[in-house]
Amino acid sequence: MDEPAGRNCNNSCLPGILNSYKVSFKNFCFKKSLWVFHFGGASCNNCDIEILDCLTPRYDLERFGILLVGSIRHADVLLVNGSINMRDRDRLLEIYEQAPKPILVVAIGACGCTGGIFAEGNTFAGPVDKIIPVNAYIPGCPPKPEAIIAGIVKLVKSV
Amino acid sequence: MAVYLFYLIVFPGLLFSAVTGAFLSWFDRKITARVQFRKGPPLLQPFYDFFKLLLVKETILPKKGSPMMFLLAPVLAVAGAALASVFILLPLFNISSGFKGDLIVIFYLLTIPSFSYIIGSLASGNPLAAVGGSREMKLIMSYESTFLLFLAGIIVKASGNFNLYSVISIQQNTTPFIGSVSGILLFIVGIFCIQAKLGLVPFDMAEAETEITEGTFIEYSGPPYAMIKLAKYIMLFILPSFLAALLLNGFTLKGINILWAVLKIAGVVLLLTLIRNTNPRLKIKQAVSFFMIWMNLLAVIAIILAYLGY
């Protein structure tokens, strides 16, 4: 017997086409409603304020369906900012493991991306991508809200 | 049998009320955005949220809890909301005449979603969810007596009819109940009860995002959370239409009257949204005394006025 029809066919037969529609529908819905959970490490609060700015009337990220949620269980995007020190590392790992997959991670600010001025500190536990996989980096000290929105749009396009 | 299943699942039950409720949820978010001078989400945003949670996200079960009850509670909430929607919307759309005493059945069915939220939150084993669950329970104990007095006022105004269909037809033959002093008082009481039943802002202490990080729903993710969203959409549609049926003359689905029916629901939701956007979250103690003292007092005054014929 040959292999049953409908298996191992990419986009040529009906189940394959249906499956590709299903995948693109899933991706479309995911893209259109990203809920954000905000993790602040040992931050100087500048990035926090700029992230809050994105949700205020002037920039309004809810236009793209982006909401700030209170519980990591509801999140699709984990925003990490601030320098991650020894104590934050365990919490960050725990938060990442508690998140329902698929989860996207965004490192915001110089401290999140590289460590910034804390990179050689005693308690510094590495930039975010040494601890958990990162999908997008938004550099700046702090990044402007426009830069954060540009980063989010690039992230949405890459999904 | 097939007709009843159609009523429950397609129209006016689960599917119809969920879709309408999702659009109303968009309306609520859009008005909120406009009040805050923002632009707001696109029209299909509630559907994107729902399908993302249902199809894309993973379900996480709590380790120290009861997974069975945790997963069953959202289904119970949707089932209760869908049943209540059938009992409310069938007389409203003039399909069936209901039965004697269906107001009481609706009153019981409308409490099922809140109770299943409590069950789910306590089954998750999370301390913050337990705080949320206990707050929700206190809230239920305070607003349910007020809601019962509100229904008693309606029954007195309808001269002792327990039947939703006859409550609507009495209004359509004479005047809507809101066109009197007691009707206006009952409308105020009803609006606040609905606000508390929907868990909107002055009474959202059970799911306070900033304070106890979504409280009752903290452990829910993926499809179970989608079910909770579905129950919330349905409740956002059926509670305003229940109020429209009891006080605002119900619907007449002929010609231009369809527009009036839509405007009645949209008006009630607009009022709820404006209350939500202009008030801070109350403490649970304040909410209890608000319902137990002031709203009960208002409802009793309205019943006395209705009994005297005002």
Helices and strands in order:
The complex is a heterodimer of chains A (159) and B (310).
Chain A lengths: L13 H19 L2 E6 L5 H9 L12 E2 L8 E5 L4 H13 L5 E5 H5 L14 H4 L4 E3 L6 H14 L1
Parallel strand pairs in A: 1-2, 1-3, 3-4, 4-5
Chain B lengths: L1 H8 L4 H22 L9 H12 L10 H26 L9 H22 L3 H31 L6 H10 L7 H18 L10 H4 L10 H25 L9 H21 L6 H25 L2
Helix pairs in contact in B: 2-10, 2-11, 3-10, 4-5, 4-10, 5-6, 6-8, 6-12, 8-10, 8-11, 8-12, 10-11
Largest interface, C-beta closer than 8 angstroms, per-chain residues? A-B, 23 and 33 residues
State Rg of chain A.
19 Å
- Provide a count of the helices of chain B: 12
Structural class label of chain B: mainly alpha
Shape of chain A: globular
Quick one: biggest sheet of chain A? 5 strands, parallel
Report the count of strand segments of chain A.
Answer: 5
Beta-strand fraction estimate of chain A: 5-15%
Look at the structure and give the mean pLDDT of chain A.
83
Brief descriptors of the model:
heterodimer; A: 159 residues; alpha/beta; five-stranded parallel beta sheet; 5 strands; 40% helix; 13% strand; globular; disordered N terminus; B: 310 residues; mainly alpha; 72% helix
Give a quick rundown of the structure:
The complex is a heterodimer of chains A (159) and B (310). In chain A, 40% of the residues lie in helices and 13% in strands.
